[in-house]
């Protein structure tokens, strides 16, 4: 069963994997690189990744995927559209879907993915990631934050997100964690007036930078962070706690 509780007929031996999620692509490339045969155009890590590209996470080239004859396609409940995944299943392709909204879920889901969907051993980098986060317990005063992910219109991280849980482990509480939506559109004046301790500006999906974003929050403490370290679940989890804590101004 994948993370959605769906039975997946994965072959006993997996030699050909297509990944439709950037962080899962990086995970497979770091673990069983010889098996990775396809990935999306958005799969940017590792930098030297040399596999067939199958367009984006939301508009994958289904015919190109079929031609790759994958033993399994790796997907995510948030990143990929159910209709695309169902079309692949209808073509007789095994599709393994992850659902990850917390760090703890990431560790469990990734171990299951490698064991059952990729038919390989638990990777050593996953052990290192769990150890790194086990040592990252926040100490001292907690801070509140808003986490914009887009502008024009402004959108922020809301409820039940991996991003929010990562920050929580680092002592930063998302002010919009109780919002009814996962990624609500919030007018800029409201964001400015909420007086969060911190404005966290990642460089993806919107590429916030020193020249694009902080000027909208005068008088606020703004932290520019790596979107990959904040939102990806994979080998980046090993370095994420130390680097994010530094960039958030927490040591």
Can you walk through the features of this model?
With 251 residues, the protein is α/β, with parallel strands linked by helices. Helices cover 30% and strands 16% of the residues. It contains 9 helices and 11 strands. It has helices spanning 22-29, 62-67, 82-90, 103-117, 124-134, 162-169, 188-193, 227-231, 240-247; strands at residues 17-19, 36-39, 52-53, 72-76, 95-98, 143-146, 148-150, 155-156, 172-174, 198-202, 222-225. The strands form 3 sheets. It has a 5-stranded parallel β-sheet with strand order 3-2-1-4-5, with helices on both faces. A 4-stranded parallel β-sheet has the order 9-6-10-11. Strands 7-8 form a two-stranded antiparallel sheet. Helix 3 (82-90) links the parallel strand 4 and strand 5 (95-98). The longest helix has 15 residues, at 103-117. It is globular, with a radius of gyration of 19 Å. It starts with 16 loop residues before the first strand and ends with a helix. 37% of the residues are buried. The model has no long low-confidence stretch (mean pLDDT 96).
Could you provide a short overview of the structure?
This protein is of the alpha/beta class and 251 residues long.
Write the layout of secondary structure elements.
Blueprint: E1 17-19, H1 22-29, E2 36-39, E3 52-53, H2 62-67, E4 72-76, H3 82-90, E5 95-98, H4 103-117, H5 124-134, E6 143-146, E7 148-150, E8 155-156, H6 162-169, E9 172-174, H7 188-193, E10 198-202, E11 222-225, H8 227-231, H9 240-247
| pLDDT < 50 stretches | none
- Describe the main β-sheet briefly: 5 strands, parallel
Helix content: 25-40%
Order the strands across the largest sheet as they lie in space: 3-2-1-4-5
| Rg, alpha carbons | 19 Å
Label the structural class.
alpha/beta
N-to-C CA distance: 41 Å
How many β-strand stretches?
A: 11
Secondary-structure element sequence?
A: EHEEHEHEHHEEEHEHEEHH
As a percent range, the share of strand residues is 15-25%
Overall pLDDT level: 96
What overall geometry do the principal axes of the alpha carbons give? globular
Question: Number of helical runs?
Answer: 9
């Amino acid at each position: 069963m994948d993370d959605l509780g769906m039975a997946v007929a994965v072959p006993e031996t997996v030699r050909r994997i297509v990944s439709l999620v950037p962080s899962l692509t990086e995970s497979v490339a770091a673990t069983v690189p010889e098996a990775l045969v396809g990935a999306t155009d958005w799969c940017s890590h590792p930098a030297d990744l040399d596999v067939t590209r199958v367009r984006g996470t939301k508009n994958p080239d289904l015919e190109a995927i079929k031609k790759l004859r994958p033993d399994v396609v790796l997907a995510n409940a948030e990143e990929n559209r159910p209709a695309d995944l169902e079309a692949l299943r209808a073509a007789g392709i095994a599709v393994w879907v992850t659902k990850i909204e917390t760090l703890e879920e990431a560790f469990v889901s990734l171990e299951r993915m490698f064991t059952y969907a990729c038919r390989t051993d638990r990777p050593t980098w996953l052990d290192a990631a769990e150890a790194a986060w086990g040592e990252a317990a926040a100490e001292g005063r907690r801070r509140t934050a808003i986490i914009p992910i887009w502008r024009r219109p402004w959108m922020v991280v809301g409820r039940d997100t991996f991003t929010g849980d990562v920050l929580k482990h680092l002592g930063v509480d998302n002010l919009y964690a109780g919002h009814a939506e996962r990624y609500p559109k919030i007018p800029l004046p409201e964001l400015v007036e909420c007086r969060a301790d911190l404005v966290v500006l990642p460089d993806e999906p919107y590429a916030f930078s020193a020249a694009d974003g902080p000027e909208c929050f005068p008088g606020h403490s703004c932290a520019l962070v790596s979107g990959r370290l904040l939102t990806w679940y994979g080998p980046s989890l090993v370095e994420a706690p130390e680097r994010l804590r530094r960039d958030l101004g927490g040591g």
